[in-house]
Amino acid sequence: MEKLTTVHPLNNIAYEKLRVAIIGQSIFAVEVYKALVADGHTIAGVFTIPDKNGKVDPLAQLAEKDGVPLFKFKAWRQKGVAIPEVVEQYRQTKPDLNILPYCSQFIPMDIIEHPRLHSIIYHPSLLPRHRGASAINWTLLCGDKKAGFSIFWADDGLDTGDILMMRECFVKPDDNVDSLYNRFMFPEGIKAMRESVMLIAQGRAPRIKQPKEGATYDAMFQKKAVAEITSWDKSTLELHNWIRGCDHNPGAWCKINGQMVTFYGSSVWRRARPIKCRKVEIAGMKEPALVHSDGMILFANDGGMINIRSLELETGKMIKASKFGQEEEEEELIFTADEETIVESLKGIWKSILQTDTIEDETDFFKSGAGSMDVTRLVEEVKDKCGGLTLTTEDVYMGTTFQEFVRNCILKSRGGDTSDEVKYDPVNLRVNNMDVCFPHQLFINNEFVDSVSGRAYATINPSDESVICSIAKASKEDVDVAVHCAGEAFSHGEWGKMSARDRARLMYKLADLMEEHKEELATIESIDSGAVYTLALKTHIGMSIDAFRYFAGWCDKIQGQTIPISHARPNRNLSYTVKEPIGVCGIVTPWNYPLMMLAWKMSACLAAGNTVVLKPAQVTPLTALKFAELVVKAGFPPGVINILTGSGAEIGAALTGHPDIRKLGFTGSTEVGQEIMRCCAMSNLKKCSLELGGKSPLIIFADCDLDRAVKQASGAVFFNKGENCIAAGRIFVADSIHDEFVNRMIAEVGKMKIGDPLDRATAHGPQNHKAHFDKLLEYLEIGEKEGATLVYGGKRLDRKGLFLEPAIFTDVTDSMYVAQEESFGPIMVISKFDDMDVADVIHRANRTEFGLASGIFTKDINKAMHIADRLEAGTVFVNTYNKTDVAVPFGGFKQSGFGKDLGEEALHEWLKIKAVTVEYETCDFDY
Ligand code: NAP
């Protein structure tokens, strides 16, 4: 017969178009078949295995479709002798060459040697190592550094034939049988088979003798019995190699509590030993296995740790190793007929993206070769083919195995998001004509838990001093656990891997949820802190939402610079800066705006990419815990945000001194701020920012709009019951308008309705808590004793609760206690000044150790600007007061602290800047 030849387009070498017999099976053989057809060869016949349980092998399916002669011999030989009819049928196909891409049958030598060009076979090891079946298993079991495959001239089945081609790759630390096959053996093997046939067709195929040294012949490793871990007396690597060498088939296993448990997804655990975990006894292992949020830790005899990602139970059920012992918690989903259709569509989408015909429950989207472009395609295809089901890229990253992905999709299609589920022991109240519900336990790693010590304390409603509920009181051990989880989330979790834009999306979602729950949040804030409901709605909660939205917008705008520097001639240099998150941060907040203080700091901290452990003030923990519930609903990965309720002296101090926290953000008193700074320095020299107390001067000139000045000054002092860090602690009024100002102020304050903070008409609610209330009474007493005149209020109201009449002191001189110390309550302190002596009032306004805020009322803009330039305060208000905005930096001078909240500046508090300098050679390219 005349030979058909053509020229290879890449190397221009002529090759013969061959008649090829394919003896093999599976998708691997299918791909080889397609490649050979693409090169113009003819498939003379396909010899594959009989159908298994009615399932036709993919190679048979393809041959049938193409009308290629197809044979499904059960066996080729009997008692070592080729079966004549089989041989005869084979001969009829008249092949030039046999290709054995993946052949599980014994092929007689009559067949191997029959074609004029003989036979080539694919073997998944670097021969002469690991001859025999289960070669990939053995490559891993033996801890080989390199894996690969050989294409050799087929022999009598002992894998000793001459080599035609070999390809190798490095074994990655966490490779298992599946990953090696999928990333290398399969794709490269198909290419190599095609190349091998081409070399044969061009008459250039080598035959290289296999060396004798290094040869091994390994036993078949398929049966479950051989994969048992019979002894734990192994080194870390031996244990890891054993488990991954059996992964996925036959699966290394041992008995736990009398049940067979098979281990998958082994990796050497180099991270710190998990703190938050459950212990599981395994007979013979050095110490109990640890079930933690990321898997199960097994111990080797050298003290090393192996982490297992998933487990198969004796029942055949696959679970995440992190769920071992709690399998019942993840309710099994029963799919409806419609949902079954969705699952089939999802499988089809995965198959087409991953270009495979087999998608198992444990097939991992990324480990099977998908990249970030595929995530977009997956999201779009699901939307297109599953009735508009809209996933986020996050949903894909959160469930990377097919089983998890299906679960997430079905839950989402049912209207709920998996991330939506948050379980806790709720406090339910009917208050403010609504049902409110909030957690009362510590929030660690997205779970609500009791303190390790089991301690709790009561939080009190200042309106009537009744107990609202009991709150978990964290201890130092809880701090360690929370910091550990935050560290894991930062270094190893999704948070650290996600793009800044995805981070922003989570923050926006959280802000949306806060908005959805704003009435509930404001109600909780009101009963816990005494904040007037309407103010809580607008400011406490409203500005918290604004802060999250504002900083969400910053996430993807955090960028460095390129900086021209002197070149080290003849070379050239380039410097650039990168702004990086700091890592695990601690935040300690006060009680006056409980949620808002949390939001101001935490939003910038998260936008910068950090993870956080926050301690709210002991007396006002509730909105922080309600916020934590929304964090889970928004889909934040575990450990990113942790909230510990408890005492400052204990938990605040433990955070401040913690060696794994590198930044501490604090808002509170100057006294505690000093202690915090000392502790930050002494522990690990952690960075800190301190937003501390104030005694802010407000200067009212005679040329002001007096109506406006009175209204604004009233707000400057009495806003939020005076529990306002920028409250105007001292009012300087020009002597020419002093008396009129005081009279008008008394009238203005008299209009304020004092009472139930939930009443929409109330302007002034109860003070925050008893200790503070008592301090205010003391403050008033000192003022009067020193000779200041109490011209209005200052008495406890004759009713239940911590209600204090707003107070006005006049005749206050600069040396008085009330002129120098912050009250943090509804106490106005008025002093006169000489309208003609601007320099003197500036001097008096600045004569304080505080420097948080200040204000000026005058119609003379030149005077206002002159004074604004000279006031030593972080904020100066002109003809207004309390006008804060999330976009404007906020923070004090002098003993009011340092470091800003809000505005772009706040971001820098939570970032570190790295400078990278590169040197490169100049090249003499001719232009
Ligand atoms: P604080 O007594 O300083 O307490 C603030 C926070 O620090 C609380 O969570 C407290 O825990 C904790 N804490 C106490 N001792 C600690 C320690 N040794 N180590 C670490 N943390 C510790 O202040 P506050 O009475 O809650 O708040 C009032 C003060 O905050 C006022 O001076 C006010 O001006 C200032 N403030 C300033 C700003 C600003 O932006 N500049 C804003 C609001 C408030 P406990 O819960 O156990 O007390």
Automatic annotation (TrEMBL):
Keywords per UniProt: NADP, One-carbon metabolism, Oxidoreductase, Phosphopantetheine, Phosphoprotein
Highest taxon of source: Eukaryota
InterPro entries linked: 10_FTHF_DH (IPR011407), ACP-like_sf (IPR036736), Ald_DH/histidinol_DH (IPR016161), Ald_DH_C (IPR016163), Ald_DH_CS_CYS (IPR016160), Ald_DH_CS_GLU (IPR029510), Ald_DH_N (IPR016162), Aldehyde_DH_dom (IPR015590)
Top EC group: oxidoreductase
Record has Oxidoreductase as a keyword: yes
Domain Carrier: 337-413
Catalytic activity line of the entry: (6R)-10-formyltetrahydrofolate + NADP(+) + H2O = (6S)-5,6,7,8-tetrahydrofolate + CO2 + NADPH + H(+)
Keyword Membrane on entry: no
PROSITE patterns cross-referenced by the UniProt entry: ALDEHYDE_DEHYDR_CYS, ALDEHYDE_DEHYDR_GLU, CARRIER, GART
SUPFAM superfamilies on file: ACP-like (SSF47336), ALDH-like (SSF53720), FMT C-terminal domain-like (SSF50486), Formyltransferase (SSF53328)
Catalytic residues identified in the record: 691
Known EC number: 1.5.1.6
Gene3D superfamilies, per the entry: ACP-like, Aldehyde Dehydrogenase, Chain A, domain 1, Aldehyde Dehydrogenase, Chain A, domain 2, Formyl transferase, C-terminal domain, Formyl transferase, N-terminal domain
Pfam families registered for this protein in UniProt: Aldedh (PF00171), Formyl_trans_C (PF02911), Formyl_trans_N (PF00551), PP-binding (PF00550)
Annotated family: In the C-terminal section; belongs to the aldehyde dehydrogenase family. ALDH1L subfamily. Belongs to the aldehyde dehydrogenase family.
Name of protein: 10-formyltetrahydrofolate dehydrogenase
Organism of this sequence: Priapulus caudatus
Classification lineage: Eukaryota, Metazoa, Ecdysozoa, Scalidophora, Priapulida
Gene designation: LOC106811887
